[in-house]
């Protein structure tokens, strides 16, 4: 069978011939039973770049978007699974595969929209994207969001009801991506650290909203990260420790989420992955594994092992909440593809 031969190939870039033949097999799978034809394992073994090439070639050949095809199958399957036994592992595998078909900025735009459309807005997902993406990438996210949904991301955030402190922080972070100074300033970082201290520990013990929003909106993410590092160096403890000790408003809770993501993304994602494995949050697992596969998954894996004394691959393999099947294969393949 053709796919067996493809699986034996160790090619960094797939040729057009291989792509076309694989697309023909996908198209022949009219029932969407990827596992039956062995296609699912083949597709998840590809790199994200190769997945996007498959999507491009498939669009040229059949005028159909594989992202939509896989996403629709996954969503239908989730409904069926929930009716049967409450398990949606295989369906989330299809959704994860659909995410691999998108360009990173296009995927982030879709994830942002889905986070905003929830009855309970998933602010943690938005914070991840607004803080852990390069400014050049964030601009592409905004463009993709407007192109796909005919809406403006910032405006949709401002329109959230009921109002939340996260709205102010997200808009400030959006503005921060326009602060394109390449060189970091230790002097500015120390001044910002001093302002944070004076407005917090040196003042009323609460984070001054005006100071925090000004720093977040006028500094790049990298410069803000340097300010938090300077804070710890000058005052002997992290800014997050102050927030955890003295938080008493929703604003402090929201700031803590933002600061954690900015200060150490790898630590943050390692902690979220651990929590998701324990709770069985399949959506969070696949979102992070896919989005960080091309960025820093190997660093996250090292952080996970250092923090929990367990390799992430073993944690996924041995997780009782993740049954054997396509979903587990997807997560493990994403780990393997980071080497």
Automatic annotation (TrEMBL):
This is Calcium-binding protein. PROSITE patterns: ANNEXIN_2. Signal peptide: none annotated. It holds the Pfam family Annexin. It comes from Lithospermum erythrorhizon. Keywords: Annexin, Repeat. Gene3D superfamilies: Annexin (1.10.220.10). One of its GO terms (cellular component) is cytoplasm. The keyword Endoplasmic reticulum does not apply. One of its GO terms (biological process) is response to cold. GO terms for molecular function: calcium ion binding; calcium-dependent phospholipid binding; phosphatidylserine binding. The keyword Repeat applies. PANTHER family: ANNEXIN, OS09G0453300 PROTEIN.
């Amino acid at each position: 069978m053709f796919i067996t031969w493809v699986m034996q190939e160790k090619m960094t870039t797939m040729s057009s011939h291989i792509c076309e033949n694989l697309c023909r097999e996908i198209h022949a799978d009219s029932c969407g039973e990827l596992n039956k034809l062995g296609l699912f394992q083949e597709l998840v073994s590809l790199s994200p770049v190769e997945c996007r090439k498959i999507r491009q070639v498939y669009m040229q050949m059949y005028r159909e978007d594989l992202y939509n095809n896989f996403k629709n199958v996954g969503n239908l399957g989730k409904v069926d699974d929930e009716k049967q036994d409450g398990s949606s592992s295989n369906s989330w595998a299809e959704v994860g595969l659909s995410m691999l078909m998108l360009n990173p900025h296009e995927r982030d735009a879709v994830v942002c929209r889905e986070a905003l459309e929830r009855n309970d807005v998933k602010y943690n997902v938005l914070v991840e994207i607004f803080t852990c993406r390069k400014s050049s990438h964030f601009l592409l996210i905004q463009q993709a969001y407007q192109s796909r949904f005919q809406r403006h991301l910032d405006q949709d955030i401002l329109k959230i009801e009921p109002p939340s402190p996260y709205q102010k922080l997200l808009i400030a972070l959006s503005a921060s991506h326009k602060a394109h100074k390449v060189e970091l300033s230790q002097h500015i970082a120390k001044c910002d650290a001093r302002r944070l201290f004076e407005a917090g520990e040196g003042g009323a013990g609460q984070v001054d909203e005006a100071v925090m929003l000004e720093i977040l909106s006028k500094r790049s993410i990298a410069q803000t990260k340097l300010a938090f590092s300077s804070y710890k160096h000058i005052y002997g403890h992290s800014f997050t420790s102050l927030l955890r000790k003295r938080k008493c408003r929703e604003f402090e809770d929201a700031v803590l989420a933002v600061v954690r993501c900015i200060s150490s993304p790898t630590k943050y994602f390692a902690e979220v992955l651990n929590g998701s494995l324990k709770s069985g949050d399949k959506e969070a697992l696949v979102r992070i594994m896919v989005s960080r596969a091309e960025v820093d998954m190997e660093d996250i894996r090292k952080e996970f092992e250092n923090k929990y004394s367990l390799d992430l691959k073993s944690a996924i393999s041995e997780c009782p909440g993740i049954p054997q099947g396509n979903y587990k294969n997807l997560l493990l393949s994403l780990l393997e593809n980071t080497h």
